[in-house]
Structure formats: C-alpha cells, structure tokens
C-alpha cells in the first residue's frame, strides 16, 4: 500500500448544534478535550468516581503494553451500579424497560421490578450451582429475560457469554466449549417476522454435538406450546426440541420461587465481567474479554456524554444484546445512568415497514441509536413509512457499526430528525468496549459521514504501514491506518484462552499502538472519516480508494438505495472497481441508468473511481449484524467458488447474485 490513502471525496456541509440543544447539553465545555488530554488518568478517574465502589481503588492505571489494569484494588459490582443504587437513591419507581414483543405485547419494568427479578434469578443461578468465576452462555431473543440474565450473572460474579439468537447450533457449540460454560439460559423460542426462532431446538442440537461442561439448560417460556395461548399470544407451529429431564429446567418452575434477596458479589475491578465472541476475518471466533471497573467506567461515561441523558428521556438502542452495542449501550452504559429505555424483540418490517416509527411514536422515544444498514434499508423502503408517524419526540439520533454514507446521514437528518436533531456517528469496536470517536452533541459541529473527534481522553492518530505517525510527519489532511495510542478503561483485556492471538492481532503491527484494522482519514480540521476495514481498501492504478467512498458516491445518485463495491483483480490497473447496486423503490435498472450511475461516481470522485462494471441486484450479502460481506462479492466477481456463507443472514443472496453475474459475463 502506498503511503497515504487518497482523499478523494469531499464533503463540506457542516451542521452546528442548535442553540437550544447546546443550552441544555450535558457537555458544553470545549476545554474538556484539553483537560482529558493532559491528564487522561485523572479524567477517567473522575468518571469512575460517579460509580459506587465497595472499596476505593488504590491505583488508577497499570500499563504493561499490551496489558492494562484499571482502578487497581477497587471492589465493585456492575449489577449494583445498574440497579440497586438507583433504588437505594429513591429512583426505584422509574421505568427501566419498556419491553415490546414483536406481536405487540408490552411489559414495563421499573428499576424496583428489575431489582426484585434479578435477585430471584441470581438465586436461581446459585441453586443451579453457578458460582463467582463461572461462565454462563445466554442464547435468547431480545427482551427483558436476556437483560435480566446478563445482570444476574454480573450480580453473582459469573461471566456471561451472549450468543446472538440468530446463530446456528454449530456456533453455540463452538462458543460454549471455548469458554467451558456450565449453564445455558435460553427460551423456547423468539418471535421474528411473525415466525418463531426455535431457540430451544437449536440449543438441543448444539448439546447433541457434545458440550461436556454444560450441566443444566434453563428455559424461559416466551412463546408457549404450539396451539396454546401464552402471555395472551397464540403460538404457531414450531419445533420446541426435546425435553431432557436430567438437564432442562423451566424458568417458571425455578425462578419465581426463589427468595427476592441476593447480595451483590464484591468483585475486583479487573474481574471478568463477560466474554463476547466476535468473528475475526478468518477462522475461529475470538472471545473478547471485558472486565468490571474499567468497562463500567467507559460505558457509563460515554453514555452520559454522547447520548446526553436527561431524567425524562426515553432512549432506544435498536441493537440486540447478542452484539457489543447491546452490552454497552442497552445494558451497562444506560442502566448505570438510570435511563428509561425501549427493548424491542422483533423485526423492523413486521407487521409493516413502519414498525420502528410506530414504536418511536407510541413510546415517545427521544434518543434513537441505530445502524447505517438499517437507515439505508429505510431509505430503500421509502419516506412514506416514517411520514405516517409522529416522530416529534425525537431530539437526538445516533449511528454505529459502519461508515454512514453522507446521503444516508442526510436522510436520517431530514426524514427522521426533521432537521433538528444532532446526529452522533459513533466509531468503536467490540474490542474497545465503548465509543472512541464521536461528536459530543451539544458542542461538536457535525459533517455528514464523519465521526468527528475522539472522545475526550482517547488518543487516536493515523499511521502508515511502517508505523510513522502521519499527522506528525505529513500534517493534515492525511489518510492511512487508524491506531489508538494510549490505554483506555473499557479496552479488551485479551482473547479468552489465547493471549498470543491477542498480542498478534492488535499489538504486533506497530510497536507502540493498538491497530484497529480500519482505514481513516483526518481532514484539514482534524475530523475523522472512517473508511472501513483496511481489507476493504482498493488499489486502483496505484491509488488507494476506499470502497466506502465509492459506495457513498453511488448512494448519492437519486436512483440508488444501497451499494457495495469491491476491487477485482485486473491485469493493468491492479484492481478494477465492481459495484453492486440496489435501486430505490420502483426504479428499473436499464443500460442507460447503469452508465449514468457510473458517470455520477466519476463526477463525484474522479474518473479513476468510475466502476468498471455495475450490477443491479435486489439484495446484498450481509452478516447477521448487517455488515456487507465484500469477500463473497469478490468471489463472485473473480469467478471463484463461493467460500463460507454460514454467517450470512440469507445465504441464498449470493448464489442468486452469482448466477446473475455469470449470465452477464457469459
Ligand atoms: C468495526 C467494529 C461498535 C459496535 C458495532 C460494531 C466498524 C463501527 C463505525 C462508525 C465507521 C464503524 C469499524 C470497526 N464501525 N462503527 N461509526 N463508522 N465504521 O462492532 O462488530 O466489533 O465492528 O465496525 O470497521 O472496526 P464490531
């Protein structure tokens, strides 16, 4: 790769926070950046000080690269900080969760309700033999029983390992055995697009593959037996698996009878809070480890500053707790701040494509945090769906998960935010635990497509392949590899069972920095523009062009709803650009439109970036968390046999693309 990434696409629209927003914002003093930068340990310790500690720490940080320990000697419990202390402080009647199931059932839990239920569940876990230091695997749909299970584990000092409810038996099996989990908590099923995800049946299949460390399986009855009424809902036909009396226990036979008092275990600041598996680009998933005191400090501080919580807010993070976003910004960060939030079980198009906006209207959501992939899907569906609903309760919008194309940002800003809500584009990773690059909504000017500045106390910069800090040697603007230069409290503490892989993956490319794996550029004002994974940067005739920039130029064309771009091997240019495009609503893909869209890219970025070929498609291959799998598109474009498609949310998409591609080529 040449020295820098060519910074081709320019975006100069700027949005400043409205004076009314600024006036009420939690963070309004620009000097925090400087303060946090000169004394990062003091800055983080201030945030740690907002938490309840059973014993105060004796040392803020011990850093032996790549191993950090934060708040050494401190004793703390995450569940206490998310639940008990709010009830103790007289906030027990505040609603914690507005839990809406996909069929439309709604349950409210106050913080006092959560405290009572979490203590019963924690006692049930103890009755099943779970102790401090054990691992528990959670495989459930998004709902209060999943969040309760996470908190109950934290309460007794067991580490949870949540496996997303869309994963297969093979994935569960692999994750259980890697972590030597003793217990699985699951449900009979979960509602998804009007059908039932057969959770218990899938757990049975995982058990049949051999999970020697599992002693019991605790099963919450969410759906009920087919043909019966459970929680007022009629259960459709689905496979509930086979009940094994020696292993399986119904939640309702065990949990309600437990005593409603269970003391919080006093945990060391550095005790393991959870493991969360993230699929590396190749091979075996990595069990990312997060510990207690630092993680809670990072997630609670960023939640407060970035989401600007007020006691009256209704917050909704649409992420599932199977992902890090659900851990950090559904459970630990928001609950440590005593927030009222929506938990939604289902899909955004069930029963209709306005489901999200119905929820915003009904529960008067004021802060919405979702993903660019969802926003682009809503764009594709059309404005009519949000326009059916009253979205005037919204005051702040957020996004996470991948770069947001300026066009999608503008749509979010106008159609959802009515031009009045700041947008916080937050960059972070499973590994960072908490938000690292983000606007602070009351004081940061935003630009469509830029995650703007580092969170105070975080030090990010741009390196070249040789490890030179390009900001120092080259100045601004500059593009290259994103690195983080100093430890932060919520950083991963390692990969479960594989310290070598931890050092190799994140700390071996450069001797003095954490390599995030992403490309980024810093503009002349010091704003960060994330360019996606380094693997997604193309080298076209000697120029580095990010797939993301070309995709943004494509989505900028009025006929285009979504786009994915890959570099395909080319004898002359090194790589040639292939584009896969989903058109909006009722637009038809003609030859003329094809040429027009490619010309649009050339006009926006430069002739160098004009795609050599462009294919219209109805769907793109995505992982279950919504990321485009460019590797598979490269396989298609380069005529290779299809690689592993098991992590795709819809494996049929690629084979249909492949036959379409071959028709065209042939
Ligand atoms: C990767 C981390 C962090 C929670 C969800 C994903 C990409 C994430 C942004 C953003 C551009 C982003 C990066 C990062 N990413 N947020 N705001 N702008 N890219 O967690 O699965 O660990 O993925 O997601 O490539 O490295 P994850």
Describe this entry's structure for a reader.
By secondary structure, the chain is of the alpha/beta class. 31% of the residues lie in helices and 23% in strands. It contains 21 helices and 32 strands. The strands form nine sheets. An eight-stranded mixed β-sheet has the order 14-11-8-6-7-16-17-25, with helices on both faces. It has a seven-stranded mixed β-sheet with strand order 5-4-19-18-20-21-22, with helices on both faces. The structure holds 5'-O-[(S)-butoxy(hydroxy)phosphoryl]adenosine. 5'-O-[(S)-butoxy(hydroxy)phosphoryl]adenosine binds next to helix 11, strand 26 and strand 27. Residues 278, 324-325, 400-403, 425-430, 451, 516-518, 530, 532-533, 625 line the site of 5'-O-[(S)-butoxy(hydroxy)phosphoryl]adenosine (WT7).
The neighbouring-strand order within the major sheet is 14-11-8-6-7-16-17-25
Q: What is the gyration radius calculated from CA atoms?
A: 24 Å
Query: What name is given to the CATH topology of the domain at 111-265?
Result: Rossmann fold
Number of strands: 32
**Strand coverage percent:** 15-25%
First-last Cα distance: 33 Å
Name the hetero compounds present.
5'-O-[(S)-butoxy(hydroxy)phosphoryl]adenosine
The CATH class of the domain at 111-265:
Alpha Beta
Number of helices: 21
User: What is the architecture of the domain at 111-265 at the second tier of CATH?
Assistant: 3-Layer(aba) Sandwich
Q: Approximately how much helix is present in the residues? A: 25-40%
- Estimated structural class: alpha/beta
């Amino acid at each position: 790769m040449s020295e820098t990434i060519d910074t081709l696409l320019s975006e100069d629209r700027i949005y400043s926070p409205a004076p009314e927003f600024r006036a009420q914002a939690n963070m309004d003093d620009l000097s925090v950046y400087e303060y946090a930068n000169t004394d990062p340990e003091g800055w983080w310790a201030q945030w740690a000080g907002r938490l309840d500690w059973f014993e105060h720490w004796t040392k803020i940080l011990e850093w032996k690269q790549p191993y950090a320990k934060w708040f050494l000697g401190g004793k703390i419990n995450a569940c206490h900080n998310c639940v008990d202390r709010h009830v103790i402080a007289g906030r027990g009647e505040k609603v914690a969760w507005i839990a809406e199931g996909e069929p439309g059932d709604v349950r409210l839990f106050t913080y006092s309700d959560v405290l009572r239920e979490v203590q019963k569940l924690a006692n049930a876990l103890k009755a099943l033999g779970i102790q401090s230091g054990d691992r528990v695997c959670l495989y459930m749909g998004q709902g209060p029983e999943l969040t309760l299970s996470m908190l109950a584990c934290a309460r007794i000092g067991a580490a949870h390992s949540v496996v997303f409810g869309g994963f297969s038996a093979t994935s569960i099996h692999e994750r259980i055995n890697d972590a030597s989990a003793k217990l699985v908590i699951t449900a009979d099923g979960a509602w998804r697009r009007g059908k039932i995800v057969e959770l218990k049946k899938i757990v049975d299949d995982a058990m049949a593959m051999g999970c020697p460390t599992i002693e019991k399986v605790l099963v919450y009855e969410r759906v009920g037996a087919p043909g019966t009424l459970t929680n007022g809902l009629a259960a459709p036909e689905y496979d509930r698996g086979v009940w094994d009396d020696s292993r399986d226990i119904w939640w309702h036979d065990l949990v309600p009878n437990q005593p409603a008092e269970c003391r919080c275990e006093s945990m060391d600041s550095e005790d393991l809070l959870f493991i969360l598996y993230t699929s590396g680009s190749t091979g075996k998933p990595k069990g990312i480890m997060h510990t207690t005191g630092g993680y809670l400090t990072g997630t609670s501080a960023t939640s407060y500053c970035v989401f600007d919580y007020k006691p009256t807010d209704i917050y909704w993070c649409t992420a599932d707790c199977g992902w890090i976003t659900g851990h950090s910004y559904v459970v630990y960060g928001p609950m440590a701040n005593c927030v009222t939030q929506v938990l939604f079980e289902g899909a955004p198009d069930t029963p209709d494509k306005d489901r999200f906006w119905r929820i915003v209207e009904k529960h008067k959501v004021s802060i919405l945090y979702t993903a660019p992939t969802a926003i682009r899907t809503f764009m594709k569906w059309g404005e009519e769906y949000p326009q059916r609903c009253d979205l005037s309760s919204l005051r702040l919008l957020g996004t996470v998960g991948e770069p947001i194309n300026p066009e999608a940002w503008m749509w979010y800003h106008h159609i959802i935010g009515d031009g009045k809500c700041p947008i916080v584009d937050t960059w972070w990773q499973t590994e960072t635990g908490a938000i690292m690059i983000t606007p602070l909504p009351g004081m940061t000017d935003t630009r469509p497509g830029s995650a703007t500045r580092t969170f105070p106390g975080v030090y990010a910069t741009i390196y070249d392949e040789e490890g030179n800090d390009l900001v120092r040697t080259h100045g601004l603007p500059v593009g290259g590899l994103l690195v983080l230069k100093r430890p932060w409290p919520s950083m991963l503490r390692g990969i479960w069972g594989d310290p070598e892989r931890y050092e190799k993956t994140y700390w071996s490319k450069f001797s003095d920095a954490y390599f995030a794996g992403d490309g980024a550029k810093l503009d002349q004002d010091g704003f960060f523009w994330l360019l996606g994974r380094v693997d997604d940067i193309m080298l076209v005739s000697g120029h580095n062009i990010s797939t993301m920039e070309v995709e943004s130029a494509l989505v900028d064309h009025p006929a285009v709803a979504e786009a994915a771009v890959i570099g395909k091997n080319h004898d002359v240019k090194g790589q040639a650009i292939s584009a896969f495009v989903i058109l909006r609503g009722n637009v038809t893909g003609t030859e003329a439109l094809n040429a027009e869209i490619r010309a649009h890219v050339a006009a926006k970025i430069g002739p160098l970036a004009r795609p050599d070929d462009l294919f219209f498609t109805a769907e793109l291959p995505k992982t279950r968390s919504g990321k485009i799998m460019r590797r598979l598109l490269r396989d298609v474009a380069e005529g290779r046999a299809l690689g592993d498609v098991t992590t795709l949310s819809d494996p049929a998409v690629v084979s249909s693309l492949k036959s379409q591609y071959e028709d065209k080529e042939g």
